[in-house]
Design a protein that fits this description.
Blueprint (H helix, E strand, L loop, with lengths): L4 E7 L6 H9 L6 E7 L6 H9 L5 E5 L7 H9 L5 E4 L5 E2 L3 H11 L3 E11 L5 E4 L5 E3 L4 H7 L9 E3 H7 L10 H10 L3 E13 L2 H5 L3 H15 L1 H6 L1 H17 L3 H14 L4 H9 L3 H14 L1
Length: about 300
């Protein structure tokens, strides 16, 4: 017997956090689901953690694979082994509120043209501080308005979405060449084919851990991925110059944090060319002359907002 929802938890060496994520799935008010935990080559006791839950609930499946270095491949593995009408993804360091699936299923059942439904999240800092992590959108965003999404990127996290499996079958799986930004690429492709719906309420707890604060030198790892995305979506970005400006701005930030101020300014200037009314770009260009100060400001915002 197939389940309506296939929940996929990709994980790697998070045995200490995984029980919280799994429990938040099992505690959902909507119970017609299968849970697929895809272990991306963990070296800790992840398997034993999952087996304890499997003894209590037969809906839980465990798949182990060689480490791929990013979430795209384990998510794709989960999708390929899923049987549900809908696909939900939960990152193993996050947790869902009990009504998350129920509220999102209601939307997909009501609006047949909606391919993905997302929501707000509660961002929780290591010191216990909480803020509501909002998207720029609320309600339906039509696929005809895809440029608005490309300019702003409205999906906060993979953990916030519920997707029709047939939508994934149409646009394709996550791009496994991308280790960090596969979700960005996937959602950019999806909005061009299907309407999105945004629930303006937090249904996910997103934990800002010490690891996510430092980002393991994210500015180094993001650089080749943004360059890859610029080339991959070159045609559409030429049609949506504000989105192109956004990519260029992110690249400028990455180079500035690497200490490559002159390269960073070049990208900021290109970003201004494609979106000259965006005043923040002028400020960032100015701050590129003061890279140490810029870095302090950026990480203060990252760790507190």
């Amino acid at each position: 017997m197939t389940s309506k929802i296939s929940v996929i938890i990709p994980t790697y060496n998070r045995a200490n956090l995984l029980p919280r994520a799994i429990k938040s799935v099992l505690d959902q008010t909507f119970q017609d689901f299968e849970l697929i935990v895809v272990d991306d080559g963990s070296t800790d006791n992840t398997k034993e953690v999952v087996e304890k839950f499997q003894k209590e609930d037969s809906r839980i499946k465990y798949i182990w694979q060689e480490n791929s270095g990013g979430p795209a491949k384990p998510i794709n593995t989960g999708i390929k082994n899923s049987s549900g009408k809908y696909i939900a993804i939960l990152e193993s360091d996050d947790e869902w509120l009990p009504e998350k699936l129920e509220k999102q299923v209601e939307i997909l059942e009501k609006f047949q043209n909606v391919g993905l439904v997302s929501c707000y999240a509660m961002k929780i800092f290591p010191n216990g501080k909480k803020i509501i992590y909002k998207t720029p959108f609320s309600g339906i965003l039509r696929k005809e308005d895809w440029k608005k999404y490309w300019q702003l990127w409205g999906i906060l996290s993979l953990s916030t979405v519920l997707i029709r499996k047939e939508s994934i079958e149409k646009v394709g799986l996550l791009d496994e060449k991308l280790k960090i930004t596969a979700d960005v690429d996937f959602h950019l492709r999806l909005i061009k084919q299907f309407d999105f719906y945004f629930l303006p309420t937090p249904l996910v707890n997103y934990y800002q851990t010490e690891e996510s604060q430092s980002g393991k030198d994210f500015w180094i790892r993001w650089t080749p991925e943004y360059q890859y995305l610029l080339e991959k979506h070159k045609k559409d970005l030429n049609l949506c110059q504000k989105a192109k400006s956004k990519f260029l701005r992110h690249l400028g930030t990455c180079y500035l944090l690497q200490g490559k101020s002159s390269i960073a300014r070049r990208y900021f200037m290109q970003a201004i060319f494609y979106n000259p009314l965006h005043l923040r770009l002028y400020l960032q260009t100015l701050l590129s002359f003061f890279p140490d100060f810029y870095r302090k400001v950026l990480f203060f915002k990252r760790n507190n907002f």
